[in-house]
């Protein structure tokens, strides 16, 4: 049997919906496990890369300094990098803040928002341990080279399956029209 | 009686009436040429360039080019389709298209074109321009983030006297669609729905109604844009 392909995954500024959709491949997960092995990923809770990987799946775009750091680490550690879902491809819903100045967003979230009740001292989180927010939310392709993109919010499980299968086997695949969506 | 002429689209012999636009002639012969700014029954504008074909070796917009005897047209070729994809990608990076939140998603012509060509991501960097959402009208909301400046609203939505409800203001990259203040008072619910329908994207939304069709039943959920044309043979 051919050697297993090594896959790593991460969620940056995303909602984990894309990872959930990957689990939606259901029993095909058993077929996948025959041909791939997961390295760093929230699926198996491996926190650090232990070797060079074949395929890196990125969910979410970059909204803070930590996202940028992790994304660059993935680029260094993976031969093929795939942007999974609208957030990774174009910023997605988090990027809806891009038309609003950052300070306004923070003030709304911590000081002025109608649901802000508990913040009696009127503090905005500023612990030096916290990642620094970027001025805008950036698509992954604005930070590193992305080799492939799988659209959808989240991508249809059949689309994820078809793409992964093609990447792992190296065989071209037909994508059915009705699974290729942006929403 | 109008004279019948012969044109050749991707090698297929097509018969149509002399002087008809290439787009129409192709459709009558069951050949789909993609469009965005064109709206059936309204004088063509030729602004989006999606319908560009090679006509006798030159790039021409099918919606504004009248046919003539013996025309040789390239439509569904790798070269032309690649150019069309590039145009669609430009629309996506020039605006702010958050499809997962958009009322038009599934019924949107721009999105449907991107689906047809299975565009996974634009080749150009996203510009994230700052655009307004105008909610000052009683019947509609205009979201400039999604407007593709096709001018369909201006050209198609008129009152009984032929006056347009919509107009363009400013120029160049600052150009935007506005609903005339006085005309907006005349706009009833039906007119608002008509405007929403004329807009190929989710830039014009009638108030009080949204997300009525469940996912899976929307216009382009199952069938690609143009499949109705390709069916007529
Ligand atoms: S107008 Fe069309 S392309 Fe733009 S966000 Fe809405 S559905 Fe997507
Ligand atoms: S509002 Fe809609 S119909 Fe009017 S120009 Fe913009 S995209 Fe076209
Ligand atoms: S449809 Fe012909 S130029 Fe837009």
Number of helices of chain B: 7
Number of helices of chain A: 6
The main sheet of chain B orders its strands as 2-1-5-3-4
Give the termini separation of chain B. Answer: 24 Å
Oligomer: heterodimer
- Please state the overall shape of chain B, judged from the principal axes of the Cα atoms: globular
CATH class category name of the largest domain in chain B:
Alpha Beta
Keywords:
heterodimer; A: alpha/beta; Rossmann fold; 5-stranded parallel beta sheet; two-stranded antiparallel sheet; 6 helices; 7 strands; 32% helix; B: 233 residues; alpha+beta; Ubiquitin-like (UB roll); 2 domains; 5-stranded mixed beta sheet; 7 helices; 10 strands; binds FE2/S2 (inorganic) cluster
Describe what you observe in this structure.
The complex is a heterodimer of chains A (183) and B (233). Chain A is an alpha/beta fold. Chain A is 32% helix and 20% strand. Chain A has a single domain, classed as NADH:ubiquinone oxidoreductase-like, 20kDa subunit (Rossmann fold). Chain A has helices spanning 17-23, 28-35, 65-77, 85-90, 102-112, 157-169; strands spanning 5-11, 36-38, 53-59, 62-64, 78-84, 133-138, 148-150. With 233 residues, chain B is α+β, with helices and mostly antiparallel strands. Chain B has 2 domains: 4-76, Ubiquitin-like (UB roll) (Roll); 84-210, Alpha-Beta Plaits (2-Layer Sandwich), CATH 3.30.70.20. A 5-stranded mixed β-sheet of chain B has the order 2-1-5-3-4, covered by helices on one side. The chains are: A alpha/beta (183), B alpha+beta (233). The interface between A and B is medium-sized, with 28 and 28 residues. The structure holds iron/sulfur cluster (2 copies) and FE2/S2 (inorganic) cluster. One iron/sulfur cluster binds at residues 97-99, 102, 104-105, 108, 110-111, 146, 201-202 of chain B. The site of FE2/S2 (inorganic) cluster (FES) has 12 residues of chain B, from loops.
């Amino acid at each position: 049997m051919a050697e297993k392909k090594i896959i790593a995954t991460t969620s940056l500024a995303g909602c984990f919906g894309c990872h959930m959709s990957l689990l939606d491949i259901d029993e095909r997960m058993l077929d996948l496990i025959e041909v791939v092995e997961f390295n760093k990923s929230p699926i198996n809770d491996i926190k650090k890369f232990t070797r060079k990987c074949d395929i890196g799946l990125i969910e979410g775009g970059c909204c803070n300094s930590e996202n940028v750091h992790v994304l660059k680490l993935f680029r260094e550690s993976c031969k093929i990098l795939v942007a999974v879902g609208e957030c990774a491809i174009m910023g997605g819903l988090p990027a809806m803040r891009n038309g609003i100045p950052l300070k306004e967003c923070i003030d709304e979230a911590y000081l002025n928002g109608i649901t802000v009740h508990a913040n009696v001292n009127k503090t905005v989180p500023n612990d030096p341990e916290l990642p620094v927010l970027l001025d805008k939310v950036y698509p992954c392709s604005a930070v590193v080279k992305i080799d492939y993109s799988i659209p959808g919010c989240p991508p249809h499980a059949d689309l994820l399956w078809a793409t992964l299968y093609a990447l792992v086997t190296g065989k071209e695949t037909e994508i059915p029209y009705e699974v290729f969506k942006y929403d | 009686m109008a004279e019948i002429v012969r044109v050749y689209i991707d090698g297929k012999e097509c018969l149509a009436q002399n002087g008809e636009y290439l787009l129409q002639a192709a459709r009558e012969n069951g050949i789909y040429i993609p469009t965005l700014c064109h709206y059936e029954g309204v004088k063509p504008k030729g602004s989006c360039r999606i319908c560009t074909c090679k006509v006798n070796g030159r790039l021409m917009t099918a919606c504004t080019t009248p046919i003539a005897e013996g025309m040789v047209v390239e439509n569904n070729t790798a070269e032309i389709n690649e150019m069309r994809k590039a145009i669609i990608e430009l629309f996506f990076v020039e605006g702010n298209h958050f499809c997962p939140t958009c009322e038009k998603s599934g019924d949107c012509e721009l999105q449907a074109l991107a689906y047809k060509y299975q565009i996974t991501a634009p080749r150009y960097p996203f510009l994230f321009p700052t655009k307004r959402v105008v909610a000052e009208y009683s019947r509609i909301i205009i979201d400039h983030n999604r407007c593709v400046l096709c001018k369909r609203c201006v050209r198609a939505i008129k009152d009984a006297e032929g006056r347009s409800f919509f107009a363009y203001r400013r120029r160049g990259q600052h150009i935007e669609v506005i609903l005339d203040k006085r005309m907006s008072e005349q706009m009833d619910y039906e007119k608002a729905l008509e405007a929403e329908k004329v807009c190929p994207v989710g830039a014009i939304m009638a108030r009080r109604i949204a997300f009525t069709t469940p996912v899976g039943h929307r216009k382009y959920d199952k069938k690609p844009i143009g499949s109705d044309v390709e069916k007529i043979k």
